[in-house]
Amino acid sequence: MIILGIDPGLANTGWGVIEADGGRYRPISYGVVRTESGGELPKRISLIASSVGRIAREYAVQAVAMEDIFFAQNISSSISVAKVIGAVTHECLTLGLEVCYFTPLQVKMAITGMGRADKNQVQQMVMRLLKLDKPPRPDHAADALADCITYAINASTMARMKGALK
Questions:
Q1: Which residues pair with 28 in a beta bridge?
Q2: Hey, where are the domains in the chain?
Q3: Residue 91 near residue 126 (C-beta atoms within 8 A)
Q4: Domain 2-165: which topology?
Q5: What is the pTM of this model?
Q6: CB contact burial 86-100 (16+ within 10 A = b; e otherwise)
């Protein structure tokens, strides 16, 4: 299965694409969609959504895993990120893709087994799981790859559960 992971942000939206086959993961590509801080908000959001759509089509993505909003101290930046999440979700649904959201806690648990793992621990595990020589950079792309792996792990677990329930 080809999975697109998204780490949403207004200035930097990380993305990563992996192929998941059982418990094996192969990195395909990753990067960041950047927008200019002085640009108009609707145009920045549109650029992010259309870029994600282009990436999904280019790599024949079958599912999308996106980190859900995390409310921190700055509520106004959280609102902008929520708008990005909405636009990217719309773009992906228009392409007929399944979109799943994961909280930072869910991603940390899936990748490291620890809900309080720090960013470095998550990046080290992403590097190991994808058999990379070095941690993916920038951080936003590494986070997006972690979202992909989280989707793959959850999909595998759900498939096993469905089989056990029959």
A1: none
A2: 2-165
A3: no
A4: Nucleotidyltransferase; domain 5 (3.30.420)
A5: 0.92
A6: ebbbebbeeeebebb
